[in-house]
Amino acid sequence: MKDNYILETEHLKYRYADGVFALKDVNIRVRQGQTTAVLGGNGAGKSTLFLNFNGILRPASGSVSFKGKPLDYSHKGLKELRKSVGIVFQDPDSQLFSASVYQDVSFGAINMKLPEEEVRRRVETALVKTGISHLKDKPTHSLSFGQKKRAAIAGVLVMEPEVLILDEPTAGLDPAGTSDIMRLLQGAQSELGITVVISTHDIDIVPIYCGHAYVLDKGEVILEGSPKEVFREKTVLRNANLRLPRIGHLMEILQDKDKFEFSDTAVTISEARSTLKQWRDGQKRQ
Amino acid sequence: MINIDQYAYISALRRKDPLQKVFFALLTLGVCIWADSTVISVTVLAIMWGITVFTGRIPSRVFARLLLIPMLFLVVGVLTVPVNVSQNRDEFLFSFSLYGIYVGVSGTGIINAARLFFKALGASSCLYYLSLNTPMVSLLSALSRLKLPKLLIELMGLVYRFIFVLLETANTIFTAQNSRLGYSSLSSGHHSLASLATTLFMRAYKRSEELYTALESRGYDGELKVIEEKYETGWTEYIAAVLINFLLILTLVLSRRLTGGLP
Predict the structure, then answer these.
(1) What is the pLDDT of residues A120-152, one digit of tens each?
(2) What is the 3-state secondary structure (H, E, C) of chain B?
(3) Which residue among B6, B207, B219 sits closest to A108, beta carbon to beta carbon?
(4) Is B157 in contact with A156 (Cβ distance < 8 A)?
(5) Is B219 within 8 Å of A98 when comparing Cβ atoms?
(6) 8 Å CB contact of B216 and A155
(7) Among the four residues A64, A221, B19, B247, which has the most C-beta atoms within 10 Å?
(8) Are B23 and B147 in contact (CB under 8 A)?
(9) pTM, to two decimals
(10) Distance of CA B223 to the CA centre of its chain
């Protein structure tokens, strides 16, 4: 294992059938056990990147490595890879193929050729972890969008992957649904030590749940670092059709227009709170 | 529209082995058709209604409303059965003459029509028993245990799963078109319907590609292998099914003896 990076891409280029490059020279390193966010506007190449991660797409040049080894694109190699790198797609209706939630969740585990008892155990665990045990007897089409999303996550968790990749996990969810899903992922991460990679344009969740962030624009990585570092680059973000978290924007306005002086940029509520407190204490001292 | 599917999932019998239900429904259906007797048909109807309503806890009105559908067709179809043509007027209960021959309705004709009507209704009730108490997924698992080709069962499963997605998509597109006056006139209606069909096809194609990618990511190997749900199973239900049908046949034989061959 090279350092503790579980997924890496080096000079990754991917070309669509029509010759357009969706990814141009992408270098990304995903640290084991961390939640990494891939930010980018529509059409930035996030989904294409993810499909390169589990070998559905093959790079035109450059390489993708899992645990320090370049991907093995043989039938057997891909099978092994997909046991370890699971993807949850954006639209659960495109992922859930069975009318039975229980059967759909079992699919990945069955494909791993596990004994039946182990499959049943894993399905139960995945259903409990995603909080949908009570829905296992329900037909898929009667589930709400949020419930389908959970079922889709359960269907990947059942394989007990080392890396869980989620394409827009919070798209289309209400605020409560968003924080539920993100907490579920946090739980999976701390209990099972799963590495999580999410793509999103829900900027506000990034500083709260993610340890590291990459910003993709037109198939290139334009920023990387901790959420705090990334959100310092306001102009670059805005040029990539993204924005600061609301709190960060407020702090920016306070600083630029209302002449507040802050020592650091704050992008979450708790950060803003302590920055403001600091500012107040500074005022008192003067 | 009454959603049969929805009731199958709330039936108290849904955990029962689907193969038992298929066996019982088809056996009784066979006996009902073979017996060709009003008494047996009505008994079958009563048994199926009783099991569905009392054991399966499906509301009685659901069963009744579902039976109305074949009944409508049956009434229309059966109306013509008792009508006969003959040169002897005495055969008919009432008749009129037409160019020297008589067209009318005879007593045996009415009995025949009633027998046919109830036979069809009894047979339908067997299938309603099956569909109201067996979710599609369980039915498919029964079919696969009956060694039907895997491909066929997988296709049925996918069609069943995605028919709801397709309907939902069609509905959304229709609403979007309708709210922009897409169906305000006949010609614009035609136009909108054509583009709805095209869009639906494109969406379905795109979704099938996405589905394939998602399946591949979960280790799809050319076969949709899933774990079967566990059902309550046992021999009692099979024995009960045979016993009930044995009694039906016995009733038939006895009633023929007593009435001297009348249906």
Answers:
(1) 999 999 999 999 999 988 899 999 999 999 999
(2) CCCHHHHHHHCCCCCECHHHHHHHHHHHHHHHHHHCCHHHHHHHHHHHHHHHHHHCCCCHHHHHHHHHHHHHHHHHHHCCCCEEEECCHHHEEEEEEECCEEEEEEHHHHHHHHHHHHHHHHHHHHHHHHHHHCCHHHHHHHHHHCCCCHHHHHHHHHHHHHHHHHHHHHHHHHHHHHCCCCCCCHHHHHHHHHHHHHHHHHHHHHHHHHHHHHHHHCCCCCCCCCCCCCCECCCHHHHHHHHHHHHHHHHHHHHHHHHCCCC
(3) B219
(4) no
(5) no
(6) no
(7) A64
(8) no
(9) 0.86
(10) 29
The count of residues in chain B is 263
Residues of A in Cβ contact (< 8 Å) with B164: 141
| Lowest mean pLDDT, pick from B38-42, B173-177, B259-263 | B259-263
What would you measure as the largest C-alpha separation in chain B, in angstroms?
A: 79
Do the chains contact at A89 and B227, CB–CB below 8 Å?
no
Task: Assess A96–B contact: CB distance below 8 Å, yes or no.
Answer: yes
d(CA A224, CA B205): 36
Contact call for residues B129 and B122 (beta carbons, < 8 A): no
Q: What is the pLDDT of residues A8-48, one digit of tens each?
A: 999 999 998 888 899 999 999 999 989 999 998 888 889 99
Structure token digits, residue A33? 């056990």
**A125 vs chain B: nearest CA distance in angstroms?**
15
What domains can be seen in chain A, in order of their start residue?
Answer: 5-95+161-242 (3.40.50.300), 244-286 (no CATH)
Predicted local confidence at residue A1, as pLDDT:
40
- Nearest residue in B to A50, CA atom: B217
CB A189 within 8 A of CB A35: yes
CA distance B211 to A97: 7
Encoding tokens for residue A92? Answer: 């659960």
How far away is chain A from the Cα of B148, in angstroms, using its nearest Cα? 18
Q: Which residue has the higher pLDDT, A285 or A48?
A: A48
Considering only CB atoms, B218 lies closest to which of A91, A108, A142, namely: A108
